[in-house]
Amino acid sequence: MAEAIELAQHPGAPRGENPRVGCVIVNSGGDVVGRGWHGGAGTDHAEVVALGDAGTRARGGTAVVSLEPCRHTGRTPPCTGALIDAGVVRVVFAQSDPTSTAGGGADVLREAGVDVVSGVLELQAREVNREWTVAVQRGYPYVTAKCAVSLDGRVAGAEGRRVQLTGSDANVYAHALRARVSAIVVGSGTVLADDPQLTVRHVPLLPAGAPVRVVVGNREIPADRKILDATAPTQIMRGHEPQGTLDRLFDDGVRDVLLESGPTVLAAFLREGLVDELVWLVAGTWLGSGPRALPGVDRLDAKVEIMETRALGEDVLVRATLPRKAA
């Protein structure tokens, strides 16, 4: 199972609308004869890839999968049928599928006479699809808010003057965050003030491609702004309603979002309880004046759970999770 979970994290297994899944086929003699991972929506699922790798050697063997095999026909046929047709006699999986359409594959396999074992290394498997699992269970994307701040909590200099706060290590980390999500959300005010490009640089672009850049707000964006260039797709969403923005993105297949907005949009998402994770990049700089990261948000009446703190060069990373909005 450890190998199946590792396969689920292969660079060719992108985050996105579908979960990241790895599969290992073991023959009746205990030898690994097939391996596979899911390459994203519309491609063969991990079980089908691994069965193709194993060929006839899968008959009488065991399929070890990081996520419960699906039972529904979507863009591809159900994995339960492929496993049964291949003559697999035992299936071991880690995490149950939380969706109503694909979940329940274990019952289908048992009805066909296949021995099924669930929950093996479940916590490790859940961590691979942490954002996807949260999103599909509640119906809108997992939201990570990233912000670079000075020691006194400011995001820019006097009168909003743009200041380079963090160093190269923190910048690389920020671009790695971009590379792993499906969408980057920014407010129209930030686009007009800072003209960000919001593309993935300094780190390799994953096979899923560049995340879509999403601009929210009602202000017109001039055609010469970097966010409208051809380096990545861009979507303009009119309005200021955070929940509506997330609902539309979920309908478009987005399961995880990086919020790189200014203070106004960030505060709106926080007030509605729509931020799951905070990524604070704290620079060793005291600005003394200028806009703060969270104007008008004096207190979050919720306990923040610190997940990680560490140095990034001369800066400090703080990652924390917030209690999730009640369904």
Write a concise keyword list for the protein shown above.
327 residues; alpha/beta; Cytidine Deaminase, domain 2; Dihydrofolate Reductase, subunit A; eight-stranded mixed beta sheet; five-stranded mixed beta sheet; 10 helices; 26% helix; elongated
Overall pLDDT metric: 92
Main sheet: strands, sense, barrel = 8 strands, mixed
Span between termini: 33 Å
Strand content: 15-25%
Q: How many strand units?
A: 13
- Indicate the structural class: alpha/beta
Helix-strand pattern: HEEHEHEHEHHEHEHEEHEHEEE
Cα-based radius of gyration, to the nearest Å: 22 Å
Number of distinct helices:
10
Would you give an account of this structure?
This protein has 327 residues and is of the alpha/beta class. It has two domains: 2-128, 3-Layer(aba) Sandwich (Cytidine Deaminase, domain 2); 134-321, 3-Layer(aba) Sandwich (Dihydrofolate Reductase, subunit A). Helix content is 26%, strand content 22%. It has helices spanning 2-8, 46-54, 79-85, 105-111, 122-128, 130-138, 168-180, 188-194, 242-251, 263-271; strands at residues 22-26, 32-37, 62-67, 90-95, 115-117, 142-149, 183-187, 212-216, 234-237, 256-259, 277-282, 305-312, 315-321. It has an eight-stranded mixed sheet with strand order 9-8-7-10-6-11-13-12. Strands 2-1-3-4-5 form a five-stranded mixed sheet. The longest helix has 13 residues, at 168-180. The radius of gyration is 22 Å and the shape is elongated. It starts with a helix and ends in a 6-residue tail after the last strand.
